[in-house]
Amino acid sequence: MEVIAIQKSALDGMKNELKALLELTENATQKYTSIFNEEQWLDNQEVCLMMNITKRTLQTYKDKGLLPYSRLNRKNYYKLSDVQALLEVGQPYNTAENGFTDE
């Protein structure tokens, strides 16, 4: 067994930093929990599977503003209600009105 000795002031400093980190984590969790509890959110893969589209098509929908999304920690999330609304009106690819054509 290895024993490491450190000064009490260093140990107290580490405790304080850990407490601050825990508080930041709890605050962030509380901040985003209410957002995620209000509605079900889907990631890219779930949306692609649900809509039966490719990631590239999903990117096009985002670029054209057809599907709103939120970004959290470099990952995109979509409200289930927004995806369902887009599915109800029909997938908007290959229509002249929104710029999607086979030509």
UniProtKB/TrEMBL annotation:
Transmembrane residue ranges: none
Helix-turn-helix domain mapped to chain residues: 41-88
UniProt xrefs under Gene3D superfamilies: 1.10.1660.10
Entry protein name: Helix-turn-helix domain-containing protein
Species per Swiss-Prot/TrEMBL record: Sphingobacterium spiritivorum ATCC 33300
